[in-house]
From TrEMBL:
SUPFAM superfamilies: P-loop containing nucleoside triphosphate hydrolases
Pfam family, one: AAA
Domain AAA+ ATPase: 34-159
InterPro entries, per database record: AAA+_ATPase, ATPase_AAA_core, DNA_Rep/Repair_Clamp_Loader, P-loop_NTPase
Protein name: AAA+ ATPase domain-containing protein
GO molecular function, one term: ATP hydrolysis activity
SMART domains: AAA
GO biological process, one term: DNA-templated DNA replication
Length: 168
């Protein structure tokens, strides 16, 4: 197991240096994450994926959290699978979560497909996109459909003022 995986926080209280982002996500969780999409952006190493995984755990068991490590993994068959499985409730907590890391890598066709999917998210499903701020800026420069995608998400900015790893 990698060092960063071994010491990755597994509760919101264990996340350091991201008080505003944690507070915002906790409020969203309290209101219910189902039927929502989150867009978490920030500098590399600020805990975007960690926050996404912790949030996912509030509504879905690990087996029902599907994570894509790179947005360019999403193709036609993957979208078909997402659309089929998002209609089904998960066992245990009942929810399903789709985490799309490196969302700045979304192709135009994938962005268009997400526009339709995010219009009809079932109440037990949550989509969480993570990206770097620089990647987000590039996405909006290159892709005319990116602004409508972001408008369908609750935006959670991470700050670069988080604690550096060598101080933890």
């Amino acid at each position: 197991m990698s060092l960063y995986e071994q010491y990755r926080p597994d509760t919101f209280g264990a996340v350091l240096g991201q008080d505003k982002a944690v507070s915002q996500i906790e409020r969203l969780c309290a209101a219910g994450l189902g039927g929502r999409a989150l867009w978490i952006s920030g500098a590399s190493g600020t805990g975007k994926t960690t926050l996404a995984r912790i949030a996912a755990g509030t509504i879905a068991d690990d087996f029902f959290v599907q994570e894509y490590d790179s947005a360019d993994q999403l193709s036609g068959p993957e979208f078909d699978s997402i659309e089929r499985t998002m209609c089904l409730y998960g066992m245990g907590k009942g929810g399903r979560v789709f985490i799309i890391n490196e969302a700045h890598g979304l192709r135009k066709s994938a962005t268009r497909r997400f526009l339709g999917i995010l219009e009809r998210i079932p109440s037990h499903v949550c989509f969480i996109f993570t990206t770097t701020k620089q990647g987000q800026d590039q996405l909006f420069d290159d892709n005319i459909d990116a602004s409508p995608l972001l408008s369908r998400c609750n935006v959670v900015p991470n700050t670069a003022g988080g604690l550096p790893l060598n101080t933890v």
